[in-house]
């Protein structure tokens, strides 16, 4: 990363004055997305990974192609360019909603960068909407300038989004680089397990959480796929799901499937065997 850009990002991360905006905004988003159906729809559990990165391609692609037409097709591409600009503005709604849902669970410097990311996107959307209106009145060149500036802001915002994902690990699977063993591994005494109380154990270097529930023992990787939270410090509900203590993601103990976001990737599940009052585990489907 160029030093100048790194300096700007660090400055945003350290600018605590932004908390007066990001804190209330995150609280509002969390209230709006509290219903499980809303949180799951926006998080992307039904998709198998985060929804927001998929949706961002649509407005960025539409606006990028509109600018390309402005630069290469002139009046011949005016109608198509205007339609692309308008389509991009419309698709911002679900894109922003999914991004806000993911962002609301962040804290500190990461949340501040995410706030600026959202503010840049908002400004870009306003410029694109203005471009569409101006184009509608026949002022194609003015509309093209507005779109070009808006696309520039989108590019800056996208850079910050990339920093959040690839430098800070927001939205990535935090168990992706685990190497679960395929051999039966002794991890705990059966007597150490209390009904409904998670127990952390080590399976050949991979942390697992064991839960005795309803007469069975289930095991999942203990690192939450969403943000790396310790599932062993979470709570088990009557439906047989464990809830991450950090952001409330819930996973079915039987197979690790997501039952509530913000997690979008299933928790790795482990096979369990009881032998002579010892609990043995191995990677599922090993």
Task: Write up this protein.
There is one protein chain. The protein is of the alpha+beta class. It has two domains: 3-167; 185-283, Rieske Iron-sulfur Protein. Helices cover 48% and strands 17% of the residues. The strands form two sheets. It has a six-stranded antiparallel β-sheet with strand order 1-10-9-4-3-2, with no helix packed on it. Strands 5-6-7-8 form a four-stranded antiparallel β-sheet. The model has no long low-confidence stretch (mean pLDDT 95).
Supply the key terms.
17% strand, alpha+beta, 48% helix, Rieske Iron-sulfur Protein, 286 residues
Element pattern in H and E: HHHHHHHEEEEEEEEEE
- As a percent range, the share of strand residues is 15-25%
Domain unit count:
2
- Level of helix content? 40-55%
Output the number of helix runs: 7
Query: Over all CA atoms, what is the radius of gyration?
Result: 23 Å
Question: Overall 3D geometry?
Answer: elongated
The main sheet orders its strands as 1-10-9-4-3-2
Mean pLDDT: 95
Distance between the termini: 40 Å
Question: What is the strand tally?
Answer: 10
Tell me the layout of helices and strands.
Layout: H1 3-14, H2 19-32, H3 36-43, H4 52-72, H5 78-103, H6 108-136, H7 140-167, E1 185-189, E2 199-203, E3 206-213, E4 216-221, E5 235-236, E6 241-243, E7 250-252, E8 258-260, E9 269-275, E10 278-283
Antiparallel strand pairs: 1-10, 2-3, 3-4, 4-9, 5-6, 6-7, 7-8, 9-10
Helix pairs in contact: 1-6, 3-5, 4-5, 4-7, 5-6, 6-7
